[in-house]
Structures are given as structure tokens and as C-alpha cells.
Design goal:
Layout (H helix, E strand, L loop, with lengths): L5 H11 L2 H58 L2 H17 L11
């Protein structure tokens, strides 16, 4: 007997496989596709969380660096350099989405 391949294999499978088994196979394929979609959907927020955590880590590092520079500028009495450093800090906060104004008069 010669092996069945290609379109003939599909026809062979379709004719000789009971209808209930074909329905079960279709259901299993659909369930697998649903599970794949669910896992993919769950992975996206995790990737976003990791990216946000990396951005916060970089911001914390940069902020420590800028505060050290700011402290040095103030000790040396270099007001313009201190202001420039403060603006760099504000720019970093803006780029991280942390630039909301806080009202202190409440």
C-alpha cells in the first residue's frame, strides 16, 4: 500500500474519521488557539511592567547622580550650574511621565 499524502491524506482523514471525533479535534484546536491568545494577552502587561521597572531603575540612578552634582554645585556656590542641573532633573522626570505639578497650598 502506498502512503497517502497531501490533499489525499486530508480527504482520507475526513472520510474515515467519525464525525464526533472530527468535532472533538476541532474543539481541541480551538481551545489551543484560545489558550495561546490568553497566554499572549497575559504576557503583554508583564513585558510592560518590566519595561517600566527598567525605566524607574534608570531614573533612580540618574536622580542620585544629579543630586550629587547639585550638591557639589551648591557647595561651590555655582548657582547657574545648580539651576542647569535642576532643569536636567525636571527633564528626566518629564520623560518618565512624572512631571505632574503638586500644589502645596492646600
Amino acid at each position: 500500500m502506498t502512503p497517502v499524502s497531501g490533499g489525499a491524506a486530508s480527504t482520507y482523514h475526513l472520510i474515515l474519521t467519525p464525525k464526533s471525533e472530527r468535532a472533538e479535534i476541532t474543539t481541541l484546536r480551538f481551545s489551543g488557539a484560545v489558550l495561546t491568545a490568553q497566554v499572549t494577552a497575559l504576557a503583554r502587561p508583564r513585558e510592560a511592567d518590566l519595561a517600566a521597572e527598567e525605566q524607574r531603575r534608570i531614573l533612580r540612578h540618574d536622580l542620585r547622580h544629579y543630586l550629587h552634582i547639585l550638591s557639589s554645585c551648591l557647595r561651590a556656590g555655582d548657582g547657574p550650574a545648580a539651576l542647569q542641573t535642576m532643569e536636567a532633573i525636571r527633564a528626566g522626570l518629564r520623560s518618565a511621565g512624572l512631571d505632574e505639578e503638586v500644589r502645596h497650598d492646600q
